[in-house]
Amino acid sequence: MTFEELRTHCLGCHACDLRDTCKQVVFGVGNPKAEILFIGEAPGKNEDEQGEPFVGRSGKLLDIYLDAIGLSRQKDIYITNICKCRPPENRDPLPAEWDACLPHLRAQFKLIQPKIVVCLGRIAAQRIIRPDYSVTKEHGQWTEKQGVFYTATFHPAALLRGPGNKPAAFEDFAAIRDKAKEICTHTYQN
Predict the structure, then answer these.
(1) In what order do the strands lie in the sheet with 29-30?
(2) What is the model's pTM?
(3) pLDDT at 156 over 70
């Protein structure tokens, strides 16, 4: 399956009830050959309206952090969510909704073949890294699984609500830059 075939398949998905309540499927954005994959939990209101992950105020903050470490969401990374459809009222996705979307994320992962995965927020970290992962205690720490390095940092929306964690988040992004310079062959070579 090609990346465009996966996108088309995902956009037509009705594996759970979320598709009936959202405006559109939010597949992801960025470079499908990126060595760094950012994963959030699910689209919010702005994402549902625009069809792109991490837009609005939280997306602008994420772009500031990316720019600070010399990365572009269009060229250097790929950004997606575990769930591709917005849960009503921005509630956490239900287990059946995670399970319905997980094959799409796995297929994205297989096609992208990232060297680094960055989970944005607790929920993504607990689904991707480990069920008991604590972003407040473990953010910025690295876990290696089958040659891929995983880390988590604060969700940009959480940073907007609790700006006291912004310096720690910046340290996490600096660590992402350092890890990318160490293991990625293309990201900082241009």
Answers:
(1) 29-30, 77-81, 36-40, 116-120, 148-153, 143-145
(2) 0.96
(3) yes
